[in-house]
Amino acid sequence: MSKRCMNVSQQTWALLYKNYLKKWRMKAQTLLEWFFSFLLVLFVYLFPSTLHYVRDSPQMLITDLGHVDTFNDSNYVIAFAPESKMAREIMDKVASAPFIKGSTVMGWPDEKSMDTLDLNYSIDAVKVAFTDTLSYRLKFSWRHRIHKMKEHKNHSARCDAFEETIMCEDLMFWEKGFVAFQAAINAAVIEIKTNHSVMEELMSITGINMKMLPSVAQGGLATDFFIFFCIISFSAFIYNVSVNVTQERQYMKSMMTMMGLRESAFWLSWGLMYAGYILIVATLMALIVKYAHVIVLTGFVMVFILFLLYGLSLITLAFLMSVLIKKPFLTGLVVFLLIVFWGILGFTALYTNIPVFLEWAFFLLSPFTFTIGMAQLLRLDSDVDANAHSNSSHNPHLVIATFFILMLDTLLYLTLTLYFDKVLPSDYGRRRPPLFFLKKSFWFQHQRTHHVALENEIESDPASDDSFEPVSPEFRGKEAIRIKNLKKEYTRKHGKVEALGGLVFDIYEGQITALLGHSGAGKTTLLNILSGLSVPTSGSVTIYNHPLSEVAELETVTKLMGICPQSNVQFGFLTVRENLRLFAKVKGILPQEVEQEVRRALQELKMENIQDILAQNLSGGQSRKLTFGIAMLGDPQVLLLDEPTAGMDLLSQHRVWDLLRERRSDRVILLSTQFMDEADSLADRKAFISNGRLKYAGSSLDLKKKWGIGYNLSVHLNEMCDPESLTSLVKQHIPDAKLTAQSENKFVYILPLERTNKFPDLFKDLDRCSNRGIENYGVSITTLNEVFLKLEGKSTVDES
């Protein structure tokens, strides 16, 4: 047995090379993947030049805006509601303000009727809605006196340089009279309450537009579309990694895990490959964003890091979905929809106020975080406060915080992936309890001193059962695999189905043991449990005193085992040699011994002539031979073979038999087969399973003695022979002989095994009777097929 070292680095690089070969040989899929990625990048490149604009706003010095009453606009009417004595008195005083003199002031019974003024588009109405004497609301037609967007949530610049004029939306409050109307109403209320006029004082207040540093103005809606395409820029890669990982997880990952694959190596191999893809696209996207001046003041490195961290988070999100969803296409579709939906959710936070706790919860969604991060970078360009004050709500430190949140999202998705990969049910592999990480055994490896029997184990001695042939003394103490009260039940729509019903027997080192039984008897289920692909409902199994019920023991057991499952384990896009090399590295064979092991497998199984053929182009027998060769890599101590020669030609079958015989010494070989001649000539012990229960375990000879019918005597007759005299002759020598079949020209008798000493005399008398109508006769021992049919018939009777 070769020395093995389960090295994560060796396994990761082996799987990474496998992934590279897959991309290289499946060129159509790879080209489509890159085509759609570059198509999105190209669209992002062309988009700014057509719809997006960027204007630099130079530094604005302090500007004197004049007095409040310098507002001079007479094309409006003033309406107020509800009309009351106090309201009318207030509004009469408002009408005395210098800038209002001459304007129409009218009262309305209620606010709803006052709002009908909005239906008359020829009237610019300034509406005052009183709630009480001291409280009121100013209402204007949309965009006439105030700007349309909420300043604190809009990532467009507040000021825009157009030709040689600087326009700031915030100045609309001053220039369109909002401040003047507010000051006049406040002066009127103060005068009525205090009987002291402050109208002239408030009207003489001077407005100043504060100094502003240079900023960048950008197109708001067009920028939003640009951000959206940045959000989906990695979607082609993320869809493909979702599909690929989901496909491999369904079967191949479980099989490789049973061969010794570390789960971290599987995730790393796909993560590193697509991280390289993300690195390329992130670089292109950062260059485009800087080249198109979408983001001006922030450096290339910051933009690149934002895209890179976002892409990495999407890879781990794809990993998480591949664990939660079993269908590859559905996994890719769900991931894409989540990216789109969560990214759009980010725009909601830009334009509406959402509760702080909800916003922090949304930060756990990486597309949402990326959207906010892009908006932060845009605000650094357009928000003068961000450039002037470190305590601004948009200062550069928030962008760094976004980076850390994306890293947290990546770590969170990866942690959830590893957790759900261990606890969610699947068709293969062992599932851990939800709180497995709270157990001490998960964090600390402990040395097991002895095996403690489970409560549902039944101690019994198989040798004491009549269904078992006693083991010869030389094998006493060589019990390598011990099976005790092993049960396995599956839950189906119509209830539970029992696949194994309390198996109890031992498998010995130095012997080849064959599992026999009809299809569905439980042979594959038993082999899956022994290999760790399935977990028993109850009972226990130990392999060289290592209990399979303890996950901590599995790594030790996998180093001992070679597994040939019922379905072939190989990658169709790899050649025979490449498959052998990959699985040799997965099994932990030392790097310097890998090529030697591969050559040995090719030579022993006579596969040198097909070593450079892709596995997907092999015949069924050749594929089976490759799977068997993978199981033999590393010369394992324990071989578990599920119909290893199925589909092979006769020459290949005998080659496999010879290899198993050569390795029988000091090894444990357990195989299932549908071929009785294979079991008869190859296996030292046969275990017959029917409907999940063990009916017999022993050698061929003992099996035939107990369940066989001895020897078959076939006598061919002609019309001259008297059947009764023939039967009398046979019984004269062997009284307990039985006639089992007869026809016009053939009689078949069963002769007990213990009467072989009577055969010579019987044959002499038959020879003398050749002139009495006996043309010829022959003797054959009962075949294993006949024993199988008899045992199967008994099992059917027992079940009924």
TrEMBL record:
Which of UniProt's keywords are assigned here? ATP-binding, Membrane, Nucleotide-binding, Translocase, Transmembrane, Transmembrane helix
Q: Which residues cross the membrane?
A: 31-48, 225-245, 266-289, 295-321, 333-354, 360-378, 398-420
A cellular component term from Gene Ontology for this protein is: membrane
Annotated membrane topology is: Multi-pass membrane protein
Q: Give an example GO molecular function.
A: ABC-type transporter activity
Q: What InterPro entries has UniProt attached to this entry?
A: AAA+_ATPase, ABC2_TM, ABC_transporter-like_ATP-bd, ABC_transporter-like_CS, ABCA, P-loop_NTPase
Tell me which residues make up the ABC transporter domain. Answer: 481-716
Localization recorded for this chain is:
Membrane
**Coiled coil stretches, renumbered:** none
Q: Which domain of life is it from?
A: Eukaryota
What is the name attached to this protein's record? Answer: ATP-binding cassette sub-family A member 9-like
Q: Which organism is it from?
A: Carlito syrichta
